[in-house]
Amino acid sequence: MANYFLPHFFRRGSKEDENLKSLKEAAAAAADHSSSISERSQEDSSALKSKLDSSESARATLSERCSSLEESLELMRSEFENMEDYWQVRG
């Protein structure tokens, strides 16, 4: 039986086969691309988490240093005031 006896929706020509093949190839490429994006996303997430941990550690260290410097400043102010009082009484 020849193709021309079949209704048009049952006929499959080479153009439809090519379209189907190209659609399958596009779907496979999209799946590969999606997988690649997912892998890169996980790598980026891990890198960001590492940077965040490092930043939090640095922040904690700087916070401790700041507190130490503030304490030292307060001690210097106190000593300066004591010296001023001493020289006013002596003066």
Written overview of the protein:
By secondary structure, the protein is an all-alpha fold. It has one domain. Helix content is 85%, strand content 0%. It is built from one helix and no strands. It has one helix spanning 14-90. The relative contact order is 0.04. The model has no long low-confidence stretch (mean pLDDT 86).
The residue fraction in helices comes out at over 70%
**Overall 3D shape:** rod-shaped
Proportion of β residues?
A: under 5%
Indicate the radius of gyration in whole angstroms.
Answer: 38 Å
Q: What string gives the helices and strands in order? A: H
State the major sheet.
Answer: none
Secondary-structure class: mainly alpha
Distance between the termini: 126 Å
- Count structural domains: 1
Number of helices: 1
Please tell me the overall pLDDT: 86
Number of strands: 0
**Uncertain segments of ≥5 residues (pLDDT<50)?**
none
Can you lay out the helices and strands and say which pair or pack?
Blueprint: H1 14-90
Describe this protein with a few key phrases.
91 residues; mainly alpha; 85% helix
